[in-house]
């Protein structure tokens, strides 16, 4: 005899488990962003002390990468939130949040790529 997950676990138990996973993934995203901000702050002050204006691009690149990863975790938590019996209202909210976060991530990725190219061109040996 075959049972589906919903037949073995009541919906309230599934909701509780998914809610815990959502909180863990959201927390992971927040931790990634905070760590990125701290790393960027340390790199910023190091560049400031060296009076190295060129190094500021590297600081922005570092922070951008952490932000992009943090946004991915946040989007994953939003998807998880609607995993069990989503209502049309929840799906609509997810669509709006996903669109905003995806747009942010897209433009952030473009900026990171541009910064990376600028750093590579700056560091490339002159012909």
What does this structure look like?
By secondary structure, the protein is mostly helical. It has one domain (12-119). Helix content is 84%, strand content 0%. The longest helix has 40 residues, at 11-50. The mean pLDDT is 83. Keywords: Membrane, Transmembrane, Transmembrane helix.
Can you give me a brief rundown of this structure?
With 127 residues, the protein is mostly helical. The protein contains four helices and no strands.
Features:
127 residues, mainly alpha, elongated, DUF1622, transmembrane, membrane, transmembrane helix
Mean pLDDT: 83
> How many helices does DSSP assign?
4
Alpha carbon gap, first and last residue:
72 Å
The unreliable regions are none
* N to C succession of SSEs: HHHH
How many structurally independent domains? 1
Radius of gyration, whole Å: 21 Å
Secondary-structure-derived class:
mainly alpha
Strand content: under 5%
Shape summary: elongated
Number of strands: 0
Main sheet makeup = none
- Please estimate the helix content: over 70%
């Amino acid at each position: 005899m075959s049972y589906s997950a919903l037949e073995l676990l009541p919906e309230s138990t599934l909701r509780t488990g998914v809610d815990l996973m959502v909180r863990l993934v959201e927390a992971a995203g927040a931790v990634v962003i905070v760590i990125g901000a701290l790393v960027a702050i340390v790199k910023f002050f190091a560049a400031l002390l060296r009076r190295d204006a060129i190094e500021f691009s590297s600081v922005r690149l570092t922070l951008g990468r952490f932000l992009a990863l943090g946004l991915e975790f946040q989007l994953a938590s939003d998807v998880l939130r609607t995993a069990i019996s989503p209502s049309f209202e929840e799906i609509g909210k997810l669509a709006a949040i996903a669109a905003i976060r995806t747009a942010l991530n897209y433009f952030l990725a473009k900026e990171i790529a541009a910064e990376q190219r600028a750093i590579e061109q700056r560091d490339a040996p002159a012909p």
